[in-house]
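Notes from the 1:1 (GR / supervisor)

We went over the backlog. Supervisor wanted to see one worked example end to end before approving the batch request, so GR pasted a single chain during the call. The sequence is below; no edits were made to it. Supervisor asked that the structure be written out right there so they could see what the output format looks like.
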Amino acid sequence: MSTIINRRTVRGWELRQGVEQFAHQTANHLGLSGSSIRWKPIPTAAINGKGTMILAAVKDDAVISRATLVRYVGFVLHELLHRKYSRFDVNGGDHYLARLHNAVEDAWIERRAIAEGLTGNIKGVLTELLQQIVDESIAQVNDWSDPGVYPFALAVYARGYGVQVPLAQGLEPIFAEATRRIDACKHSIDTLRVAECV
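Structure output shown during the call:
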């Protein structure tokens, strides 16, 4: 992976090969066995409790920028952190609460990994990934006061990386309290309780 991350562009097949190698090595470093990657037409990334990660497919001959490569590295790190820390059987029931819970859980797993110093430049990679996602969202979201975007805004705010999105009036004190409570979380049941408070 280090041989391609410093290049300006790589081909799609190189990205897949490098990302799979990085995922395998990182999973081993984190003490996670049995991880695998499936490439499918999805917009982001996902992982299940058994370690099957799904990443957005790329064509062999696609020209991939360094920013996209960093994005995939960030997705792999983030999804492996879910596998390391998250309990996949904990959920709040309704769809909106599940989205709020995922926002809190995302911030918790990343902040925990950074605090524990799990990998070298984890904060830099995750911050760059978040900035890319926020830049895209700023161009796409028309109404930041729509409750449908609150889970995304919470996920950005609670990470505490200095990356910002517009917040609807009255959200900042609620998000600040949730962010404070995340530090005391020990597992996914605790993060669900924070989401319920939000």
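Supervisor's comment: The first strand starts at residue 9 and ends at 11.
Batch request approved.
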